[in-house]
Please model this.
Amino acid sequence: MDQQRRNDWILFGSFWAVFSVVGFYLVLGIDLLPAQWAHEAEVVDDAYILLMGLSIPIFAGVAAALLTSLIRFRVKVEGQPTEDGPPVHNNRNFVRLWIASTLMLALMITVNPGFIGIAELRGEPSADIVVEVQAQRWSWKVNYENGAETFNQLYLPADRRVRFDITSLDLVHSFWIPGFRVKIDAVPGRVTHLYVTPEGVGSFEDDFNLRVQCAEICGLGHAQMAMPVTVLEPADFDAWVSDLAEGA
Amino acid sequence: MRQLLRAVIFGILGYLIGAALTWLIRGGSMGDEVCVVFGYILGLIGWLFGIGMGDTWVREWFGLPARKYEVTGWKRYLGFSTDHKVIGVQYLATFIVVLLLGGVAAMIIRFELAQAGEGILNADRYNQVMSMHGILMVAVAVAAILGSFGNYLVPIMIGADDMAFPRLNAVTFWLIPPVAIGLLAAPTLGSFDAGWTAYPPLSVVNNGGQILFVLAVTTFGLSSILGGLNVITTIVTMRAPGMTWGRLPIFVWGAFSASLISLLTTQFFAASLILIAMDRVAGTVFFNGGAGGDPLLYQHLFWFYSHPAVYVMVLPGFGAVLETITHMSRKPLFAYKAVVVSFLSIAGLSVIVWAHHMFTSGMAEYLHGPFMFASEMISVPTGMVFLSAVATLWRGKLWMKTPLFFAMIWIFQFLMGGVTGIFLADVVTDVSLHDSYFVVAHFHYTIMGGMLFAFLTGIFFWFPKITGRMINDRLGIIFALWLTIAFQLTFLPQFWLGTNGMNRRIADYPEQLEGANLMSSISAFILGSSFILFVYILLSGAIRGPKAGGNPWNASTLEWQVSSPPPEHNFSGQPTVVGHPYGYGTAGSRHAEFADVTVAAAPPEQPGTDQGGDHE
Amino acid sequence: MAMTTTPEADHSRAAATYRPAANRLGLWLFLASETFLFAAFISSRFVVSGTDQPEHLNQGLALLLTLLLLLSSISAFRAEAAMAHDNRKLFHREMLTTIVLGLLFLVGVGVEFNEAVADFPVGTIYGSSFFMLIGLHAFHVLTGILALGVVWNLGRKGHYSSQDHWPVEGVVKYWHFVDLMWVAIYPTLYLFGGS
Ligand code: HEA
Ligand code: HEA
Ligand code: CUA
Ligand SMILES: [Cu+2]
Model:
């Protein structure tokens, strides 16, 4: 009898180990996330990978318990069952242990990718340049500091911290750059802010995730409400902006 | 039948009178939204009177004798019946139909999304189909389990002969058909396209169909509130002698805590929709940013209900799954008390996490931390439910019939949904994942994998009780596996799509994402076709399945101690509860005694014998 | 395992022993749920316009309205007490008083609306909240008056007694609740903040 119970646990443990290893391999070994084009993207991806790493053992544990039960505890029943399981109603210590560990885990997550991540993602509310964005069904208008203006085009300098001041003229839209992993809604009657530090030079041609995509449903043109993002070397960006301002 | 016909006629007449009067008073045209509003309200009242509310209830209120219809047989299901079992079946049938309708919309969605570029739908149509899918399915998720099994089983499980307010119960159900009609009629006014969340200002300025959405969903909310009130009152006041709170079957606790939520928070949903209606037809400016209103007000009101609503969906599901697991593995429910505490704390916590849907909405940043914290905390009581489910299975005697298959798959899938919920509750990752397909995958795992699989578990577990017949178990297991595998292949790619730059509610997407979308679409069709088997299993089982007898699972709770289907007043003698509901493994343990006969909790029985309460 | 069937006995069990407790609890739950409805609208007012107030608020009329409702609560209470002591004449009188006070309240609201439309129309944010809240409450007053009317009529015809007057109790509780909601709405619209 005891031997049997030990075998249950051994089987469970082995499944758990195997599932965890396979899980870790899948998550960490295969590149599931797209290229990072901003400092913020690294923060977000690190949090994502940490959460993945923490959920794999939980997942593997439950899956292992289910599979073990299926293999070890199923009975063949002719007609109606004649046998009951053991009358275990509770196991206080086990329940306490479980609650304590899930609570710990939840607190840990709240602190680590949670509060620490938020602080890292937001950083200081200071910026090298400010870019104003105005959303209107179904297009984007961008104003740079010196009066330059673009329509459905966004140019940014690499390695400089940018603050976006975003608003909307009609509906709620959402300003999302998948390559940067950040988004904030554009709300009529409000100005919302977003800080990003682009990294690396590239454009929509290099990666389709270098685009601003409207992420809040706004009717007919919602899917098409996107604009390409181009990240330039700081010097190139300065030249581009002043050219544009003079032309205007 | 006659009632139903009368209800349709009264409903149409009511609508026409309401719309025409409004039109006469204020001019304009009959199709104006104001006319639609008043038409709908009078139509709704006409419908309720036609179906029979006036014959009993209202007449009594005015001191007149109630009229009574003596209808028997299957015709009861088409009229104003106050029998909770009839109402439960009415709910069940209605919501299976709505589920299939919503599923057809899902098939159209996936067909459109199989390839980048515009397919069969233009962007406008796509948004409409998507919104229709969303709201139909949310209605299914909120009311299917509570409405059908809650009605059918709660009174029997607690040893009562009906719900506390049988007529209110009937009205609660008959409010549902107008909801469906209202939603499905919306295309006549240009349909609605703002998703099931209906955020303003879009929902204030879009086509006229949105007003029907608002009216129908408000009606649905009313039905939820009244249903919740009834369930709570029933559980509090109608328990049989000896049925202490500590002896309630776990499904009753699930229904109780879900009802608490829907009784007390649905008002906020109604309020948010009423404000939209006001902005549309009465000229108020609640959501008009230009005139001093605030679009975020809606989001706060809406999520104050709609987050708790997700627990209205799953709490009865938890109950159904745990119930199935304990009976089918023939072991007492592990840590019963802790599970009850968890249910209640989920209900409590659920009202303080709503703004986790608004991390990128532009609301004040100091709110992010507290809401993130509260959202993470909800995983602790939910985790307790998982422990109970798994530990009940552990060393049980698993009788692997269709219901237990579904229950075990449920554990796996809801875990997937719950754990991905943690990613969304975390502000840092949500800033990237919000409104992407990651969210879509998350909630299909929680709602479909959690609520719908619990619903299917319940359907297969209580099918013999309701119809008196057994289903074909082999087909049931084939269905379970087919559904599950196709489900993973449909929604796993969507997690990847979400992290790789695909946002929600779009008819068209960058070509680079075509591969995963195609895979998801093909799997979705395989998933959809499995429901043909589902319908076949139910119909063939109900028509010519083998007779089930009173207690085919040899289970201990009260509903199994009466015939299948149960007699008209549920019990022929007064049941007295004398012990724990799940006395498995303890020799001589009994849950209930009847007036003169004693029914053992789980005596080994010969197959096919009819135990307890037979009326033959 | 045959059991004896006595459906008639079951029926009377449900009718006699269970109902009063259920009715009472049902009413309380209903009122709790209504409280949440009012809470939603009241909090909306603060979310969209803080404690801002327009200049032209008719404070005198509002105070009068409040008094009317409070008085009607007293008469409603006396009506119920009268029925509990089988004093039909007093019941009759107090019910009627309550109904009349309620109707007067509605008239007052009509007057207030007429003035308000000019000073802060629906298209302003305060006006939106104002008409929404008062309108919602007035609707409840109206349903309350209708219910009071039905109960008064039945009471007049001798349908109730001291032993059996649940409808009176129910409708009076509802009326108290409607008054209580006014006591929350009145400061929300008239007292908090300033212009
Ligand atoms: C039945 C429905 C259901 C359920 C049960 C849940 C459960 C949860 N949901 Fe989900 N959710 C939805 C339905 C549901 N959700 C829907 C429909 C949407 C989209 C709405 C829309 O915009 O259209 C949504 C969106 C949504 C968002 C917003 C995403 C966005 O738009 O940006 C968030 C963010 O926090 C979230 C979080 C959670 C969390 C934390 C849980 C938790 O309750 C999960 C708890 C469970 C577990 C965690 C697993 C078990 C626990 C253990 C085994 C213990 C150990 C684990 C840990 C300690 C981590 N959900
Ligand atoms: C109970 C809840 C529930 C259920 C069960 C489902 C089931 C399905 N859902 Fe849905 N879904 C939602 C709730 C649900 N959904 C919600 C709330 C939204 C959000 C809407 C919004 O954003 O506002 C959404 C959105 C949503 C989207 C995102 C749309 C977008 O953002 O643009 C997608 C895309 O793939 C999708 C797909 C599916 C699929 C393939 C199924 C399948 O599982 C369906 C399978 C069932 C059937 C197919 C029916 C039965 C079959 C037949 C009748 C036979 C005939 C069928 C064939 C043609 C083969 N759903
Ligand atoms: Cu703009 Cu979606
Ligand atoms: Cu939520």
